[in-house]
Amino acid sequence: MATERKKLLLRLDPSVHDALARWAADELRSTNAQIEFLLRRALNEAGRMPSGAARLPRRGRPPKEGPDGDGSDPS
Q1: pTM of model > 0.85
Q2: 28-66 burial string, b = 16+ CB within 10 Å, else e?
Q3: Structural domain harbouring 40
Q4: Which of 3, 4, 24, 46 could form a disulfide with 29 if both were Cys (CB 3.0 to 4.6 A apart)?
């Protein structure tokens, strides 16, 4: 069973939010997912990522099934 995700109210300067939203769109993420991605990267770089932290869920369309049913691209 997945644990419930924490909710957080975050106040940002409007220009920072706009830049973050553009960056998220460029990487095909939501603004929320981009914030979590950046926070996790900063925690990893600082050596502060908790060992029990769940991995980020994969988003988007699942891979196409190949002829062998292995998820590889059929082309």
Answers
A1: no
A2: ebebeebbeeeeeeeeeeeeeeeeeeeeeeeeeeeeeee
A3: 18-45
A4: 24
